[in-house]
Amino acid sequence: MTQTQPTMHDVAAKAGVSQMTVSRVMRGTGYISDRVRAKVMTAAAEIGYVHNRLAGGIATYDNPLVAVVVPTLGNRVFTEVLEGISAALDGQGIRPVFGVSDYDPENEARVVLDLLSWRPRGLILSGLEHSDALRQLVAKTGVRSVEVMDTDGDPIQTCVGFSQARAGHDMARHLLDKGYRRIAYIASQNSQDLRAAKRLHAFAETVTQAGAQIIAQRIAAEGSSMALGRRLTAEVMASDAPQAIYYSNDDLAAGGLMHCLANGLRVPQDVALAGFNGLSFLQALPQQITTTLSPRRQIGETAAQLLLSAEPAPDTHVDLGTQLVRGETT
Amino acid sequence: MTQTQPTMHDVAAKAGVSQMTVSRVMRGTGYISDRVRAKVMTAAAEIGYVHNRLAGGIATYDNPLVAVVVPTLGNRVFTEVLEGISAALDGQGIRPVFGVSDYDPENEARVVLDLLSWRPRGLILSGLEHSDALRQLVAKTGVRSVEVMDTDGDPIQTCVGFSQARAGHDMARHLLDKGYRRIAYIASQNSQDLRAAKRLHAFAETVTQAGAQIIAQRIAAEGSSMALGRRLTAEVMASDAPQAIYYSNDDLAAGGLMHCLANGLRVPQDVALAGFNGLSFLQALPQQITTTLSPRRQIGETAAQLLLSAEPAPDTHVDLGTQLVRGETT
DNA sequence: TCTGTATGTGTTTACGTAAACACAAGTCAA
DNA sequence: TTGACTTGTGTTTACGTAAACACATACAGA
């Protein structure tokens, strides 16, 4: 309504105190008598004054903001990481500002540059692979950063996640132990999803070293979904008849199960299925799908805590591990 | 690394121009020769300078930020709205700052107060029901706001969504037309989810006016999931044997379908199922579930655009409508 | 040649807050 | 009664940027 928003001076005038006293009341610092605090609070409420953190930030060099960049909001994995981050920050009165990179390193660098213009306390990135420009930017500006989801490689400073390679290796071992030799791999958006690529690499290595083989590989350009998994499974079953299928994602695996259900294929007798992530919706499916449980929410929480911890602790790798869930589909 | 971060003055000194020229280059305004622009850009890159929007914001009263509050990040519906918002803002160089209310009005008011301290261009809220404190806060500060997902009621200023009541009514009509008379309702977290409550209200009204009845109602306190839907469906089928079940959510409906699949119940002969939202994963299920498609992403996009449009246009209701998807389960 | 306009750059100042410092009044033990 | 400490409040100043204004230079058209 009013053209110029009210300031601490307005509140101070109304409450009959100095601007500095209002500042102290707003931040809850210093010694303030209950009488003055109450006067200031009611004055602020009447005027409709809201603390201005922009001005505060410029005065203190420090503002309660954390920048978060995820590849997409369309994958539940990242929204769960976001949930963890949000929960951890909430307790500390810190807000996340976020950006989406669309799995594109150039885009990511642009988004980070923009986010840094808000002078956040820290930066949370997804994965360990970034453009040189981004790495240099982080180094030059000296922002604290934490990279989430992946620990196979060198973080800029700190990373929290799990070994994608080990997860792939473990699943390969599991399938081999069960006796499957002719194995197919189904993934989505793989060209950009380097974490899935790492899993596949380790998976394939373990499989071939054991004398078994990856007889087919379907990598779709579109985003992950049950529908895609169902379609690709139909294709692979028709052309390659694998004994087992490893999916880059539970969505895809669930789609595969749906294909089997709808076409009278017995799982795992006719084909075994294994997913990745351990999304909770799997529990409601007719058969429990074998998958790898990743601690996504915990990764988000840990990343936020690490970022805000007193001592920077550079070069820290936090591996929260994964858990192989032996379901009924292998 | 350096204790004090570089400023425009540092860049200006390095480039041999004035601070104001650097400012113009950073913002791309005014007349700047290519030679000077290049000098400034390289100087900034070498020093590692990043534009400081906090200082800019305090100088201009205007900063490219939009505050977004959602009830939860655990429901795909809201992350899809977020996707739409993020996409619409991206093109305009504006960032979302967000908060989670956990379906609690008091919490929501607190979060909004905090978000307003960043002096955003506008505020995006979920639903039309808010605490008085929040309404007053928005009124007093004069922030532009848009409420999303619901159009049944009075928005503070503007709302974008669809009529929850009409969605409930339409589904009731559909089930009645198909001849179902004994109908059960299954929901989650309903006490706080007022939009689901509105759908139920209109649904129940239409059902009872037609002489049919809601013979059972299961409303769980926990969050929506397929597993919950499966469990509640088992309960309802055992105790009430309804002809049709209306779920507050596709997750729950899919869980219901899983229960039927796993227990040899024919759908819709033994029981009909209807969900809500039209989530994409339904397409991969063995049977296409009847549901109501809500334009979630479009709601997010429209809300963001409306918020940033030149003229405030108060009291605007934008009803993007819903679409009843006639599946194979009714 | 003169005038007006487009182009390009600099100087001064204000934005709203918080740190640093100053100071006054009250409390309490020696 | 003194001095030290706790409690409570005010004054001055700096933070980094952008608006407003001022001032050049180049060039076209009369």
UniProtKB/TrEMBL annotation, chains A, B:
Name of the protein described by the UniProt record: Gluconate utilization system GNT-I transcriptional repressor
Domain (HTH lacI-type): residue spans on this chain: 6-60
Pfam families: LacI, Peripla_BP_3
Alphabetical list of CDD domains matching this protein: HTH_LacI, PBP1_GntR
Organism annotation: Tropicibacter naphthalenivorans
Transmembrane regions listed in the UniProt entry: none
UniProt KW Transport keyword: no
PANTHER family (UniProt xref): LACI-RELATED TRANSCRIPTIONAL REPRESSOR, TRANSCRIPTIONAL REGULATOR
An example Gene Ontology molecular-function term: DNA-binding transcription factor activity
Coiled coil regions in record: none
SUPFAM superfamilies (alphabetical): lambda repressor-like DNA-binding domains, Periplasmic binding protein-like I
Keyword annotations: DNA-binding, Transcription, Transcription regulation
